[in-house]
Amino acid sequence: AKEKGKNNYRFFNKKLCKTIERKILIENGLKGAIQNKELHIVYHPKVTLQSREIYGMEALLRWEHPTLGNVSPAEFIPIAEETGQIGVIGEWVLRNACKQAEIWHENGFPPLIISVNVSVKQFQHGDFCQTVKGILQETKLNPHYLELEITESIMQDIGQSITVLKKLKELGVKTSIDDFGTGYSSLYMLKELPIDTIKIDKSFIDNIIDKKDQYMIKTIIEFGMNLNLHVVAEGVETEEQLSLLKEFHCQFGQGYLFSQPLNEVEFENLFCSNN
Ligand code: C2E
Ligand code: CA
Ligand code: CA
Ligand code: CA
């Protein structure tokens, strides 16, 4: 029994080492990722549920590591947050997403709203609003066409968050609470926030057959509508989910049922064939 325990321990250690090794590889890799042009952005369409018309898109970061291959943002963003690299990376995404949106506007595409994910660390940094303002001036994008997606964890420091949200509103930038329903906030706190949109987390949509999840979804939609907020359902994959969401009067959605995230050219092609 003792022998076995020892082996288990060794195995665990090996696994732990692999995890740490990978983390170090990611951390070091991120340092040169921008300079080596390993990052790019894909665009995930957002549609109106009634007519499936595209009204905007979310910028999602992609990283092709030279040896690890594609690393998911779900893996490297938390590491970048931990190491502080998120500042530079987040600014890169914001700048390039705004640049691309402005190119589309200039080329005569209807003015779609570009959403960019912002990590809490980035949001709470003292310079954040200045950075956003600077990038808008630099890229000449009309602020009304930029939306920032922030998670509920900003509620941990609700006072400061409200100040930042107000400043963003003054700039003309829209804000959205991402992954709504999974974090710290209550509906009570939500009513205090000067935001424009809430995104119902995919986990609720995944379980939409479940009566309890239906109840949550309906409550969030109703609450959002009463506060004059847009409500977006994320991760819509099936016609069945779509028809329930429409029944619940959800206006907007996003998910593989409508489209996968697309590169610039794919997005242009989809848009031209759809609208
Ligand atoms: P998120 O903001 O909740 O983005 C939605 C994620 O779900 C994306 O994964 C998207 O590709 C995926 N998704 C959307 N619709 C469906 C669907 O119908 N089915 C399924 N199975 N998946 C769907 P992705 O691109 O891997 O991003 C993961 C997370 O990484 C994002 O979650 C976001 O939190 C973070 N992230 C991505 N890009 C950035 C960025 O530029 N900055 C920051 N701070 N975080 C980012
Ligand atoms: Ca998001
Ligand atoms: Ca989301
Ligand atoms: Ca999510």
UniProtKB/TrEMBL annotation:
Please list the residue ranges annotated as the EAL domain: 23-275
Top-level taxonomic group: Bacteria
What name does UniProt use for this protein? Diguanylate cyclase (GGDEF)-like protein
The record lists the organism as: Metabacillus niabensis
Please specify the portion of the entire protein covered by the chain, as first and last position out of its full length. 478 to 752 of 752
